[in-house]
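Our working data are protein records whose layout never changes between entries. An example says more than a description, so a record of this kind follows.
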Amino acid sequence: MAIMLKIAAFLTFIPGVLILAHPELALAQTRPDWKLKWEKVLKDAKGEGKVVVFGPPGELIRVAITQGFKKASPEITIEYGGAYSREQAAKLKAEREGGVYSADVFLAGTSTFHLYLKPMGAADPIQPALILPEVTDTKYWRNNTLEFSDKEGMYNLVFVNELKNPLVYNLDQVKREEVDELHELLDPKWKGKFVISDPLPSGSGNVTFRHIWIVLGPEKATDYYRKIRANAAIVDRDVRRQIEWVAQGKYAFALGHSDLTAQQLLQRGLKFGVLGEFKDYGTSITASAGSVTLLNRAPRPNAAIVFINWMLGKDGQTAWSKAMNNVSRRLDVPTDHIPRYRIPKPGGKYWISHFEKDVRRSPEEEKILTELFGR
């Protein structure tokens, strides 16, 4: 059995990086009977024939996941459905309300889990599904822990820890030093020249504005929210369009953009600048789309277990990291392909944004955001 360790408050250490957080973690042990259990699960998974995975959009990640898993488990077909996480969550909810249970595994950001999946009761405990020693042995994981975002430490396992980059900018219209401090975005010269990623739904805009609320405090953040909204040209929810607008020069920069989409577009050759963090207030540590949920009432539970163990192993994490430019929590996954602005810097102080207590906004913050950004 896995040993659960709960810590009310602690300092997480990424070599040379101090991170302030209050997570709840689980320490897994390698079970001596794992081979027998694995053989049975693998046999039953082959009988089920396939696994259905909901995950982030993009051809790069779809190919990486499907081809990687096919190579590891050729007798199990993978059906990968890629879309933005809140769209996936809405689809899952609609299906379940109609008595349809089509998906087995959900890969998404932690805010999607806490705002959508957990309230609909869609998750099974994931610890019993972790079997292979390269997954359960915590020596392979940062801080010698398996990290869960939920307060129970059971349902939503985080496998990515990286910097949330607060904005992207047009290389011809903006110099980095003009936007690398939070207050500079309020300069009148930017009025009507930038786009805000809507902070109300789950996603990147939500995380960026939560960070602002945390570092400024309610009174100053409320004032900042009003001023940044008044200075912006538009608020938008299409995360790809926001970045394309910036690259094309329609807007000077985008605040709260999707890191996932930005990395995919950069790999496809689109040109724009990325601000790694603010000089005055830093940024947050995020899981990006890197957390996994084992869906309950999964029609193919054994195939789901096989997939999750592959996904959390070195091969699965390497495939994910290279396709998404994400920083895996596995210590044996290389980072030489990842832009330096995605990786926490030695000596930096960062706010961890992906634990359950930090995902949900306070009533005060909810009120002002709804007033300013509600539709």
Summary: Confidence is low (pLDDT under 50) at residues 1-30. Residues 94 and 251 are 36 Å apart (CA to CA). The chain has two domains: 3-160+287-344, 165-282+361-373.
